[in-house]
Amino acid sequence: MRILHILDTLNRGGAEMLLLDVCRNARANNLDLTFVATGGGEMEAEFRNSEANFIRLQREAPVDARLVRQLRHIIKERGIQIVHSHQAVEALHAYLAAIGLNTKQVMSFHGSEVDLKNRLALKFLVPRMHANIAVSRGQLRWLERETKFDTKTNFDVVYNGVDAKRLRPAKARLRDELGLSSDNVLLGMIGNFYRSAAKDQLTVCRALPKVFDSAPHAHFAFVGECLESAPGVYQECVDYCQQHKIAEHVHFVGKRADISEVLSSLDVFVFSSLRDTFGIAVVEAMMMNLPTVVSDIEPLLEVSANGDCAAVFRARDSDDLGRKLGMLIDDPCYRRNLSNKGKQRAMERFSIEAHLASLTGIYRTLLGTTATETSGELQQASVAFTRHGAEGD
Question: Would you say 280 and 14 are in contact if contact means Cβ atoms under 8 Å apart?
Fold first, then answer.
């Protein structure tokens, strides 16, 4: 199958990490994948070095006629059978580019908020897609409830996947940087500080004074950048820690690319999100065999098997979170049991192989092909691509 995935920018985030894992594993899963980025970002070099045929374009306007023509040329020249978009702006350009062509259109939903402009675009696009994909059943219900889309017709649920190969245990450098010994317990969370306070780091801060009172050897690390639109959220957390005299135990380490090293440094992973569609950061922690604590929003309950594979606290309830953290700090057996369950679930349900198997099933249905036909088709496409070269790379 000849597939084109398109993404706007390549800054580090959940959707970008998912697609990088897809690009790195597409060939092994019988997908001839072209990846188009219509904007740059810090992850561009990683996408260029993946196994996908990488093409870098540039969108110059909200609706860019030149970009539409470039996409149409790529679709026709490479015989693209399916275009898979991941945001409304990309899906609109892909739809316009493929008008009159025998190309199927797929769109995934990653965000938990839809502004008016995107809502209008999606209202136009959703019924025109051959398949729409939600990344969790919780998100599917949210889309039906909040956007009033008809999710019973051309919607599927495909869980995001994580490539375990990029999460091999690494040297615990973060502990060294923070000057911690093996006697210290390090709790941590990975998530940017957003203006909407969607990740709710402040509830974590409010839970920590009592945690440190009972476990003075414990520390907490917030990993993630403060976005320019959210200085108040970040500063509120910093001020709270200073006012409650816990600043020496709470570390704001900023954005990090060495996720394996960060996770290898932690003893417990916390994710306090108020709005999320899936929780790739949670799955990464589970795959790294970390005991995990999550808020009780629907997608995180889904990932954690309703709390069987992670400790769950009531969202925004700092007292409940503090109790759950205290239990994990005090009980190594509980930590070990939770981490083992979490890793098993993550590897079985949320691997990149499981994700690609589900995607491929949808693609085959749209094209009316079988697995055997797809394998032969990929061999023919690879020969043709080798003969003509990777134009645009």
Answer: yes
